[in-house]
Design the sequence.
């Protein structure tokens, strides 16, 4: 069955337009609550944890979700602004029934979304999301007054998560002597990430840490890393760490302001693990640069591609029993450290690798020669099917013939926005750019 509301990362859209409206979100809370309650036996009621990023609309959607869960007889704990991976961790650590995050991740403040975590701290399986969608089609009612859910604040959420992040860093190492720029994207990690790195010994220069409800991801964070790179050079810092609005992505830069994306950081983490023992394999996505696959296979390490989206990377990792995976956008997963992608924990894995190697980011990734990759995003009407555009299909086939074995073409619909993404990898950057544009231009033909 196809999903009506859930995309690759929950339900997301423009606030005030369906489905991101208070009435729908209240019904969503009720439907999810009924699904959670249906599988329970005994007298205990399910409890969910709700966290959010720093968007102004978070207040409204939080209240709507709370009302829906209460009407279904589900208790609620409110964590306030917290990174998405923090909610995953706390849901598991507190033995709760589910976690809910109100966030649109890297999108601008006008957007928002809802995503769920299971009791195990993982994204909900497709089957459970379909069950929630089916419940949404049923009329909303309300349990009797004595069965209504209660709500309370989780006052120590920040401290719990800071300690968890620190626990993933090796006990024998510290960050003393390192100066780090930490860009929090004016998002959910603004009052958490700087403390993690500082408490491990680093001198921290925090930027993007003054959210006002409207500036999340604005000219800061993993989707706008220039601010981090400029700050690193201005302050003479050793490294820069940029998170996105809900802190599940990571982009880094070195002292020269040179940026390192998720593909390069994944490679670095794999090489660090390889130095201390065998690594069976790692998972990327259809968008992962060919250079990663080539480099890992040369070292006898398996590589598999998943559909775009960290939930699909996680599925393939579990199928193969592998610990490491990620996306070029900065979603990185270390399953021996956390159940989901976590920007702060990923940064700590990179920092520990650099400390162990005694080398720079550039030196640790010098064997990875990235293929030039061009990406063109074309905004389309919802439901647009590029495979039915004959001119576009013909141009894609022509480009593939020209590339042969020296590159590849990938066209896919975004799972979170009405966009068609055209990606071309080639040995030469100019060729990749011109070929991607050639294909994208056919969309209007």
Sequence:
């Amino acid at each position: 069955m196809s999903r009506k509301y859930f995309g690759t990362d929950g339900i997301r859209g423009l606030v005030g337009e369906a489905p991101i409206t208070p009435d729908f979100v209240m019904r969503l809370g009720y439907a999810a609550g009924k699904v959670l309650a249906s599988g329970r036996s005994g007298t205990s009621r399910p409890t969910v944890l709700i966290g959010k990023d720093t968007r102004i609309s978070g207040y409204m959607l939080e209240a709507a979700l709370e009302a829906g869960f209460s009407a279904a007889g589900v208790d609620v704990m409110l964590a306030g602004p917290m990174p998405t991976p923090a909610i995953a961790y706390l849901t598991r650590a507190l033995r709760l029934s589910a976690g809910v995050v109100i966030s649109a991740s890297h999108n601008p403040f006008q957007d928002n979304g809802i995503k769920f975590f299971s009791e195990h701290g993982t994204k909900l399986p497709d089957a459970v999301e379909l069950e929630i969608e089916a419940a949404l089609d049923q009329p909303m009612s309300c349990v009797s007054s004595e069965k209504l859910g209660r709500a309370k604040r989780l006052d120590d959420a920040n401290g719990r998560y800071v300690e968890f992040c620190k626990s993933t860093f090796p006990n024998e190492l510290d960050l003393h002597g390192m100066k780090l720029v930490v860009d929090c994207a004016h998002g959910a990690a603004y009052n958490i990430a700087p403390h993690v790195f500082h408490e491990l010994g680093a001198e921290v220069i925090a930027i993007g840490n003054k959210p006002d409800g409207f500036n999340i991801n604005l000219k800061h964070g993993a989707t706008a890393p220039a601010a981090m790179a400029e700050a690193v050079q201005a302050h003479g810092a050793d490294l820069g760490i940029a998170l996105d609005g809900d802190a599940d992505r990571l982009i880094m830069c070195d002292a020269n302001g040179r940026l390192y994306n998720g593909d390069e950081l994944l490679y670095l983490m794999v090489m660090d693990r390889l130095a201390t023992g065998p690594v069976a394999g790692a998972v990327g996505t259809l968008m992962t640069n060919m250079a990663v696959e080539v480099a890992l296979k040369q070292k006898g390490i398996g590589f598999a591609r998943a559909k775009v989206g960290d939930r699909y990377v996680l599925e393939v990792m579990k199928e193969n029993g592998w610990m490491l995976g990620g996306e070029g956008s900065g979603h990185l997963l270390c399953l021996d450290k956390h159940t989901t992608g976590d920007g702060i924990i990923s940064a700590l894995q990179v920092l520990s690798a650099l400390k162990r190697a005694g080398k720079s980011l550039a030196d640790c990734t010098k064997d990875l020669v990235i293929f030039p990759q061009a990406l063109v995003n074309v905004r389309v009407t919802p439901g647009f099917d590029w495979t039915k555009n004959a001119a576009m299909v013909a141009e894609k086939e022509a480009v593939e013939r020209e590339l042969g074995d020296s590159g590849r073409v990938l066209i896919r619909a975004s799972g979170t926005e009405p966009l068609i993404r055209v990606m071309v990898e080639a040995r030469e950057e100019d060729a990749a750019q011109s070929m991607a544009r050639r294909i994208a231009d056919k969309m209007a033909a």
